[in-house]
Each structure stands twice: as C-alpha cells, then as structure tokens.
C-alpha cells in the first residue's frame, strides 16, 4: 500500500507553485494518467486499510488524487470490503474541501460520487442535502449556472422535505445553461486568475444540458415551493416549465403536469385565473388547454359567485385530482375562495363588520355562507396571522361590534427603512447589471443573435415596426442546440 500511496500523494500543486494555467493543466492531466494506468492489483492494496489511506491524503491540496481514490473504493471494490463510515467520512472530507480547479480534471468521477451519496444511505438526508448545497455554492458562487448537482439537490430536498437547507440555491435565478468544453482548457490558472471576470460563470460542474433535465429541475423546484405554500414563487417556477422552448413543437409530460398545477397555484397566488404567457406557442397552448380542461373549469368558477358550482366541479373531478396528485392543491383552492373574496372587499371598504363579511362572502368548502360570526372572525384571524391579509381585527363584545380594518397597501416608512430599501434596490440593480454584461458578451459571439440584431436594425431603418423579440425570430430548435447551449 505504501507504493500506491506514494504515487497518489505525489501531486502537490501548492509546493510546485503553478503560475501558468496551461502548465498546471498539463501537470494535472499527466498525474491523473499516471494513477489511472496503475494496474488493478496495485490499486487493490487500498483495501487493506482504506481509512488510513484516505486520512493520509489532503483533499484541499490534492483533490484529484483524493477523488480518484474514493471513486475507486466505491466503484471497484465489493461493498462489504469498505466500511460505510470510511466512505461517509471520505465523502464529507472531499465535498467540504475540494479545490475548484482540480475537480474539473476528475469531473466524471466527482459526479459519480455526488450521485452515490443520493442513492446510497451513507449519510443522513439532511447532511447529504447540506453537502450538495455546499458543493454548488463552492463551485458556482453566483448560483446563476445550471450544474449537474442542481437536479440531485432538488430531488433529495423535495423527497425529504429539506428544501429549507438549500433555499438560497433553489430560489436563485438560473441564467446560464452552458455545455462543458469538449477538451478541458482552463480559463483560470491555479489557484486563481485575478484577471478573470469575477461575474463570469465557471465550468466546474457543467454537464450536457438536456431539456428534460432543465424541465425536471424547475418542476421539482415548484413542488418544493408548493410544499412551502409560497404560491407566488411556485407560479414563477411552473411558468418556467410551460414556457421552456420545445424542439419539434413537442409538449413534454413535465409541461402538461406543470400547467395543471400552474392554473391552481395561480388562483392561490393572485386570486384570479392566470393568463397564458405569450412565449407559449399556439401548438403547445392547444395541447396544454386540452389536457387541463377540468382545471380550467375550476379556475373559471373561482372568480364568480358560484360557490356551490365550484364545490360541485371539485367533487365531480375528484378522481382526476387523485390521479394527478393534485387533491391537496384543489382543497387549498376551495379554502382560498372565500379568503380572496374577503381580500377583495378592500376595493370597496376601509372597514367592514364581521356580520357583513359573513353575509357578502361564500365558502366553497361548505357552499353556503359560514353559519356564525365566530367562524368568520376565526377565518379572518388566521388570514392576518399568515400574512395573507393586511389588516387588523377589532373584536367587540358582540359580532355586530367586531370589525376588520384594512391596512393601507403602502404604509409610511421611516427614514432608516427607506434608506435600507434604496440600498437594497441599488444592490439588485448592480447585480443585474453584472449579469446583463456577462450575458451580452456571450450573446455577442453567437451568429444567430448577431443576425437577429442586423435584421432588427434594417427593419428600423425601413421604419418598420420590429415588435418581435429575440425568442420569436429564432426557432425553438436553435435555442435547444445552438444558442441555448452556450447561454
């Protein structure tokens, strides 16, 4: 085992001090080829004491050797020969301390290790979620690039209801869907290129981006947001699924299922039927509307006074909701029917009595109005406590003397709060400006986008309305192959 350890531990980039990225890249590849060519019987020596072998390596200094050794233990040795605690400890060490530059050299092995901890119960789910989230934060500090770890994280977090441990990643806006280079050519020297644009996305964990992977990720994101009852963000995530460019005008199962949930979530988020996004093509729109007819019926009744009809429609299609696993969402819509009627009273009243609320609103859960003022007061209290309703409940000795007082939608702010809000807006604008600059630089190298700009300029010169967007002048197929793969 000593000779094997000496070979694996021979790569020490900090001692060598590589300043040229090409030099580091060549040295790392040569080192990887050397340990990869070691005979199987030499590598088997690691099974004598795998724990001691891994403890002797430093994942910060030599991520390549540590990752390759751990991958060998998982992939090529029988499961009963390597204790689970050794594998678990090695995974925690590597995923917590890996070097961003080195890990690109062993990206296939690193990705297999990430997949292994999601399939094999080596660690508690909460620890696994935190580890994968740490990997993404370390590999992609801007959280703006879709990586091969995003889908693993989303699935694990959703299945175990642990999305709060990775909320900053799951809530981040994905801007870049890039493919890895066919041959690795580092754009940054080891350990850091001070001249590189800090806002440019790295390529540490990039994988071939498929439409299915992107659709599944946004769909699972939406499910986690539905679990959180964050209806507004869930609606946005579902819209990202139904508006995703489709090759050959195909409509995937993710899109049809997302559209069903989108109709219901839109009611919960805004109190009205959501409008179909303009990016959805006519063919996709027809398919989505056809597969969501029962949902459209419920959505159409939500904005009417037909509480009994809404309740009847929900009961009529109970089997559909169960088959689509949307039963809880439909129940939430029925519960929200009267809540949104109460919220909409602010358009007419600044203050309204509890009996008046009972007489002017209906419950889709019971069809008729609530029987007592106590039930209405309890409902209003729950809405205020949850933050759904901005108001104050003034409880008097009798129902007639109890009132709901609506708060102004725009309350006065103190000087300090106003200054904080302005500073936050400045930070957001600054972040968006940086992302816009990087995106613009990447677009400017794509001939499809340049052609679009030339066509737009000619149209303006002819005084013709060029009221079409980039997405409508480039075929969906181009977005899925040429442009989309590099954005």
Report on this structure.
There is one protein chain. With 487 residues, the protein is mainly α. Among the domains are: 1-123; 424-481, no CATH class. Helices cover 60% and strands 2% of the residues. The protein contains 26 helices and 3 strands. It has helices at 2-8, 13-16, 21-36, 40-43, 50-55, 63-76, 84-97, 100-103, 107-119, 125-139, 148-159, 167-170, 211-228, 231-242, 253-270, 282-291, 293-302, 307-316, 318-323, 327-344, 354-360, 373-386, 415-443, 447-461, 470-473, 476-481; strands at residues 351-353, 391-394, 403-406. The protein has a 3-stranded antiparallel beta sheet. A hairpin with an 8-residue loop joins strand 2 (391-394) and strand 3 (403-406). Helix 13 (211-228) runs parallel beside helix 15 (253-270), helix 14 (231-242) packs antiparallel against helix 15 (253-270) and helix 15 runs parallel beside helix 20 (327-344). Mean pLDDT is 82; it is low at 181-203, 466-474 and 476-487.
């Amino acid at each position: 085992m000593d000779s094997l350890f000496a070979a694996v531990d021979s790569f020490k980039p900090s001692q060598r001090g590589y300043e040229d990225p090409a030099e580091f890249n060549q040295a790392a590849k040569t080192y990887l080829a050397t340990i990869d060519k070691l005979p199987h019987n030499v590598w088997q020596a690691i099974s004598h004491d795998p724990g001691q072998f891994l403890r002797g390596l430093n994942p910060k200094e030599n991520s390549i050797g540590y990752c390759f050794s751990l991958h060998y233990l998982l992939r090529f040795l029988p499961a009963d020969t390597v204790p689970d605690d050794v594998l678990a400890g090695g995974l925690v060490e590597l995923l917590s301390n890996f070097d961003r530059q080195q890990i690109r050299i062993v990206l296939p092995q690193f990705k297999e290790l990430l997949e292994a901890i999601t399939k094999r119960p080596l660690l508690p789910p909460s620890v696994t979620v935190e580890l994968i989230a740490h990997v993404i934060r370390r590999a992609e500090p801007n959280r703006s690039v879709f990586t091969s770890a995003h889908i693993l994280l989303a699935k694990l977090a959703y299945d175990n209801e642990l999305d709060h441990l990775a909320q900053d990643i799951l809530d981040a806006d994905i801007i870049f869907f890039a493919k890895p280079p066919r041959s690795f050519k580092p754009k940054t020297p080891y350990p850091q290129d001070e001249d590189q644009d800090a806002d440019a996305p790295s390529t540490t964990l990039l994988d071939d981006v498929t439409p299915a992977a992107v659709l599944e990720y946004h769909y699972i994101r939406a499910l986690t947001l539905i679990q959180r009852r964050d209806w507004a963000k869930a609606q946005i995530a579902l819209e990202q699924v139904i508006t995703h460019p489709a090759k050959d005008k195909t409509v995937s199962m993710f899109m049809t299922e997302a559209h069903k949930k989108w109709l219901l979530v839109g009611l919960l988020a805004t109190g009205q039927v959501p409008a179909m996004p303009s990016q959805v093509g006519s063919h996709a729109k027809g398919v989505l509307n056809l597969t969501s007819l029962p949902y459209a019926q419920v959505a159409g009744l939500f904005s009417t006074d037909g509480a009994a009809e809404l309740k009847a429609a929900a009961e009529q299609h109970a089997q559909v909701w169960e088959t689509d696993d949307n039963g809880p969402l439909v129940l939430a819509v029925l519960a929200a029917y009267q809540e949104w009627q109460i919220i909409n009273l602010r358009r007419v009243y600044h203050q309204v009595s509890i009996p008046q609320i009972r007489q002017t609103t209906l419950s889709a859960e019971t069809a008729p109005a609530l029987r007592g003022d106590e039930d209405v007061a309890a409902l209003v209290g729950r809405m205020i406590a949850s933050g759904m309703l901005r108001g104050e409940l003034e409880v008097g000795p009798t129902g007639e003397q109890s009132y709901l007082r609506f708060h102004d939608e725009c309350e006065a702010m103190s000087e300090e709060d106003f200054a904080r809000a302005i500073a936050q807006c400045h930070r957001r604008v600054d972040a968006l400006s940086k992302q816009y600059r990087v995106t613009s630089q990447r677009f400017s190298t794509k001939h499809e986008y340049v052609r679009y700009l030339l066509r737009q300029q000619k149209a303006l010169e002819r005084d013709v309305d060029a009221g079409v967007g980039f997405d409508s002048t480039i075929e969906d197929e181009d977005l899925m192959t040429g442009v989309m793969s590099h954005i």
